Amino acid sequence: MVRRLGHVVPIEDMRASAQEGLLEAARTFDPARASLPTYVARKVRWAILDGIKRERRFRRALARATALLCAERLSIGLASTSDDAGFSEDDHVSALDRLLEAHAVALALGLVSGASTPEEHISRAEMAHALRRAIDALPERERKLVERHYFQGEDFDEIAADLGISKSWASRLHTQAIQLLATAIAARTR
User: Fold this and answer.
1) 145 and 159 in contact (C-beta within 8 Å)?
2) Which SUPFAM superfamilies match (predicted)?
């Protein structure tokens, strides 16, 4: 995590957040949903990234942390997607293109929502404008989830409860929203 965040956040701060994540993992582990090592690793990474988001003194790392968190949630959401053995090579190439587009949008969404200085806002304005148009075109629940999580800083638990859905369903909506955003952004750049 230190390397991924560019050595901006002191390791002691990351350790403190990681310990919180470890305790949360111990309290909430459900063997029916994931293996213990996978669950603990995710909880610890998310706790570190959430800790960075809470600390104002790490503004430079905030955008990077938000982008990494978005990309990781997308990866988890896509992990449940099966690979059809009947796919042709062209189908696999097309699926890989869509995956890369979705990750690019996930990272862009995180970077745009985490911009904090005037210079960052200016340099990201065009990307933000394209994302805003794409977000506005999302179905209502997906749009609300994206806006509330990335631009208002709300947790998936909160948003899911307000929308009357489970956290796992909110994760699926998130994955779907990112894929729809990727398709919209890709269509505009072609």
Assistant:
1) yes
2) Sigma2 domain of RNA polymerase sigma factors, Sigma3 and sigma4 domains of RNA polymerase sigma factors
